[in-house]
Specification:
two-stranded antiparallel sheet, mainly alpha
Length: about 260
């Protein structure tokens, strides 16, 4: 039986929403690990002097897949407008919060003794406590979780607002400008919201600002480099829906997106 346009439209939203939600949730889970971007690329530490601090690109592992969230968000913005982004953003935030609640419950579960004994040493024979490791990996601080969720929602709402403001200026042209511009604008706020909620009173304000600037430099570079992938996704959707239908959806989406909330 031939697939109707409405069926294709619904499947497209489910697919984009699934990609968005999965990557956002996984990014939160793996974000506890801090890695060196310079070492990953075989480079020496950057040692950037910012506000009296020497900053390197030491980033949470979550930044590896957050760009997928940015791209998917922009595609949902383009074809489903503000209502589509709001629905999936609030749903994702709720599911992330649910995931952390479940994790905290599992942390409190008493470990089986045989599980502790079976994992009593690492691969070099050093003493190892599997239950302690589980708690350290998954037991992120409450302020970090709250900061991350707040930054996520603020960033998403700001992103959709900027995206459609830029679309009014650019019309159908310059997808790269509204997509990249909205991402850069929202991530500028996101980068500092999470840090101030999580670390205000723990680190000096100048150090928090220095960390935020370092993170934003990375996000800025990645947003620019990933612009071609946005066009790949845009082209695929146009081919899947049909160019005329896709353009009509984008036009309707832009007209449904008045206001900030």
């Amino acid at each position: 039986m031939k697939t109707t346009f409405e069926q294709k439209r619904n499947r497209l939203f489910i697919t984009l929403a699934g990609i968005f939600l999965t990557n956002a949730l996984v990014a939160e889970m793996i974000g506890v690990k801090i890695f060196s971007a310079e070492s990953t690329l075989g480079l020496n530490p950057a040692h950037l002097p910012i506000f009296g601090f020497t900053m390197d690109f030491n980033l949470t592992a979550g930044v590896i897949i957050w760009p997928v969230v940015f791209i998917t968000s922009d595609l949902i913005n383009e074809y489903f407008g503000k209502p589509g982004v709001k629905r999936i953003s609030f749903l994702t935030a709720a599911l992330i919060a649910y995931a952390f609640v479940v994790i905290f419950i599992t942390i409190e579960l008493p470990p089986a003794q045989w599980w502790i004994e079976a994992n009593a040493t690492d691969n070099k024979g050093n003493a190892f406590n599997m239950d302690f490791a589980f708690t350290k990996i998954f037991g992120q601080g409450q302020r970090i979780i709250i900061g991350s969720l707040a930054a996520f929602l603020i960033g998403q709402l700001l992103d959709v607002f900027l995206f459609h403001k830029l679309r009014k200026i650019t019309g159908k042209k310059y997808l790269w400008l509204r997509a990249t511009g909205s991402t850069l604008g929202s991530q500028l706020i996101d980068s500092f919201v999470v840090l101030f909620i999580a670390f205000y009173g723990v680190f000096p304000v100048m150090q928090i600002l220095a960390i935020g600037i370092t993170n934003y430099i990375y996000k800025f570079i990645v947003a620019i480099l990933l612009t071609p992938l946005l066009y790949v996704g845009h082209t695929w959707i146009d081919n899947y829906l049909g160019k005329e239908k896709a353009e009509s959806m984008a036009e309707q989406a832009s007209q449904k997106s008045e206001g900030f909330l």
